[in-house]
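User: Hey, my collaborator sent me this sequence without any context and asked if I could get a structure. I don't really work with proteins. Can you help?
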Amino acid sequence: MISCDFDVWIMISILPKASTFRALWFLLVIYQVQATYRLQERYAWNYIDYAFNDINHKVQAQITRNYIPENNLPVGIEVWNDKMFISVPRWKEGIPATLNYISLTDNNSKSPPLIPYPDWKSNELGNCNTGMNTVYRIKADECNRLWVLDTGTYGIGNTTQQLCPYSINVFNLRTNQRIRRFEIPAELIKEGTFIANTVIDVGKSCDDTFAYFSDELAYGMIVYSWAENRAWRFKHGYFFPDPLAGNFTIDGLTFNWDEEGVFGMSLSPRYVTGEKYLYFSPLASNREFAVSTNVLRNSSKVDDSYNDFIALENRAPNSHTTARVMDDYGVQLFNLIDQNAIGCWNSLLPYHPKYHCVVDRDDVGLIFPSDVKVDAHRNVWVMSDRMSNFLQAPEGLNYNEVNFRVYMAPMKALIQGTICDVGLEGSRSYHVNELFE
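Assistant: No problem. I've predicted the 3D structure and written it out in structure-token form, which is a compact way to encode the shape of the chain:
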């Protein structure tokens, strides 16, 4: 990727090519860019603790192995008003609650305990009617609803047990009440299905809402209609991993995730054509893809949509990504797990590596930036959790040091002076096909 400082890129190109001043100035600027972290740390945990009812509740949870601190790995975040939601999948025993939150107005600690959402009972393992088993990424919509996919699973990989059906759980954030639970039909769940990402598409009204779920290991996409209260499944070759992109190196660990298919997704603003575009990519891939939501919303297109999907350019090498988000101005942020970094792309520009850049990199604090979100005030939130060390390192994590962090920066400050900051105050009335040139 090019230097993220757009002003630097322009200025260097116009300075005299043989100038000693040019060279010295360039080195100074590069040093300043590398030494400046735009994301600011808000929270940091050595290990995850919970807001137990009292000390007896916590001790009992530890005795019964319902709470084992070193087995808890936070993976997903979402921000709504004064709450930050944090998900902890039940990959191992000892995770007392999979869906939690912290208060953003409580400044008593940088390592606050997680509060089960909406309560302890709703996080009961194996309760297929009112409980939740394993939650990954969550999404709040503009209708004040929190969308939560419960995979119904316990364990990971070869240890996975399917305790309950996959279910979509929707909460009213103003009342903290579950207002809908939809079990995904068994015929839409395939052998190996692993769904860990959710995008919510609100149309002309709150009833005109669709949810998109990427099936990473069974290579499909499930679409759910709120109005119809039913779901359907798309399949496509673009959901599969790239056999040449299965090697990963993160924090000195080299390993293979060659079976990881469609994962990260982001939704565009509505274009003048009246449609939105869903951007996505497999985890074991450096290429981006897109499809109009007009296609996904139409269940009759399930078996007749191959040519509606669009292959965009490759990102730069070693640019595997699991999480991305696009704001209302069309700026996409995406994690770069190989690079301990966050990248950006402004969709006013063609999708090409020369229009991508890194807005922040931290080889300590951003080891595996697992989730990226933008809140209603256009603040960017990033969680890092050292997931690759947790899953791949023989020694696991060192709980005497900080392992999990949440960062925040206003979008404007994060991209200011970069190529992603181009033309944001201009018109978005271009024809959508210009995106894919």
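In plain terms: Helices lie at 6-14, 20-35, 55-63, 293-296, 387-392, 411-415. You can pass these tokens on to your collaborator as they are.
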